[in-house]
Amino acid sequence: MAPYIAAIDQGTTSTRFIVFDRGGKTIACAQKEHAQIYPKPGWVEHDPQEIWRRTGEVIADALAQGNIRPSDLAAVGITNQRETTVVWNKKTGEPVYNAIVWQDLRVADDVAKFSQGGGADRFRAKTGLPISTYFSSLKLRWILTNIPGIRKQAESGDLLFGTIDTFLAWHLTGGPQGGVHITDVTNASRTQLMNLSALAWDREILKEYEIPEVLLPKICASSGMLGEIRHPALAGLPLCGILGDQQAALVGQVCFQPGEAKNTYGTGCFLLMNTGERPVQSKHGLLTTVAYQMAGEPARYALEGSIAITGALVQWMRDNLRIIEASDQIEALARTVDDNGGVYFVPAFSGMYAPYWNDRARGIIVGLTRYANKGHLARAVLEATAFQTRDVVEAMEKDSGDSLQTLRVDGGMVANDLLMQFQSDILKRTVVRPATRETTALGAAYAAGLGSGFFASTSDLLSNWSADHTWAPSMDTAERRTLYNTWKKAVTRSLDWAETETT
């Protein structure tokens, strides 16, 4: 059998192709960024064709870097930014509009409109999700409503809808020449159009949102034979895994038992806890989602806390304020001071997600005095990520009835030792970073490996996981209480700041 497995990791800011060996070690990796498009305040878009080009480029670069032939790969998996919405012509492959990114706020008016008849939770029992700007359903509706002539084309079957996994899978397997139009259960569960129990598109919700079912992809398991790749660089290889990025990280962290949890620190922050074969409805502002479904097995579910802005706040410091030249400089700057100097940064650039779900919240910096300097601001930026994570952990413990003992962490920000120690301190929990940090791509590779027979079962994956570093809490109880209570006070100042929805 071929010695390696590979994954396309299509994220919010970049695309990567990573090749792993059987032990989960990275053999080759290539990465390229794509443009972030901001047509209006609160609007965020990507060019789907640029993402597709970058995908081809990183595949070629990684294979060349590792001197790897396609025959060296057993299968390929995909993991992707979730909720980001694409509609394209199935005859030409051309998108009818830019991809509307998960962070986009343009459908805030529709959120208010559809929440009137039964509240924001009217579909939560079916989908596990509140009505929000976050999910794909209203983004898709916006495209059908606002792009001239599109609805008629959609109803006639000329167009296809998908999240980024669907767009890439369709192109990889032939595009206009027979490409498969599929998504997996994890990505489907983020559209707000899938019934969590039935694992099928919900026709009542489709009717409510005026979305033609003919647009939608076939829902598949996360692992199995999903299609044959026809892209020249990988021609003939099986596509055997698809997972939304956060569910992929859960698999990459081998959180296969109920109660196990991971937090991924990327553009946003996403904490998932495995709840087993039953969906747990949240009463504390979390989302109920599909964790994964391996071929021939029941779906596993998770509780999720989604935070919109974490790593993106560091990028904002770099790109908008130019206080740092590179993102990895934030830690050194934060270490120039002993504490936050009373400064708190609530990064509600796109509203507040879990557990607040307040679309009208906006970013604020509070506690400024003449004493404050850029070191205090840098520290407040990092602490905002840890505070938001504690908000989610507390909600998750209330919903699940379990007390989280250890938090497994991954993503770009876990290289920041100052942040990880503060995370442990403010949580009063052990925080563990795995030896393999590319857990999102690794999870997609694991799904592909299971679907292709490269791995026999999830038991084969458990021995691959090992800890790189562990942080234990050392903060005084009174200091922890004061810091967190002040953070909560700062959050109240940001909520409902916008008097009208962003349009």
Query: Strand content of the residues, in percent?
Result: 15-25%
For the largest beta-sheet, the strand count, sense and barrel status come to: 7 strands, mixed
Mean pLDDT, to the nearest integer, reads: 93
Terminal Cα separation, in Å? 53 Å
The geometry reads as globular
Strand order of the largest sheet: 17-18-16-15-21-22-23
Protein model, in words:
The chain is 32% helix and 23% strand. It contains 16 helices and 23 strands. Helix 10 runs antiparallel to helix 12. The mean pLDDT is 93.
Topology overview:
Elements: E1 4-10, E2 14-21, E3 26-33, E4 45-46, H1 48-65, E5 73-80, E6 86-89, E7 99-100, H2 108-115, H3 124-127, H4 136-146, H5 150-155, E8 159-162, H6 164-172, E9 182-184, H7 185-188, E10 194-195, E11 200-201, H8 203-209, E12 218-220, E13 223-228, E14 238-244, H9 245-252, E15 261-265, E16 269-276, E17 287-292, E18 300-307, H10 311-319, H11 330-334, E19 344-346, E20 364-366, H12 374-400, E21 406-410, H13 417-427, E22 430-434, H14 439-452, H15 459-462, E23 467-471, H16 477-494
Parallel strand pairs: 1-5, 5-14, 9-12, 15-21, 21-22
Antiparallel strand pairs: 1-2, 2-3, 4-7, 6-8, 10-11, 13-14, 15-16, 16-18, 17-18, 19-20, 22-23
Quick structural summary:
The protein is α+β, with helices and mostly antiparallel strands. Helix content is about 30%, strand content about 25%. Helix 10 (about 310-320) runs antiparallel to helix 12 and helix 12 (about 375-400) crosses helix 13.
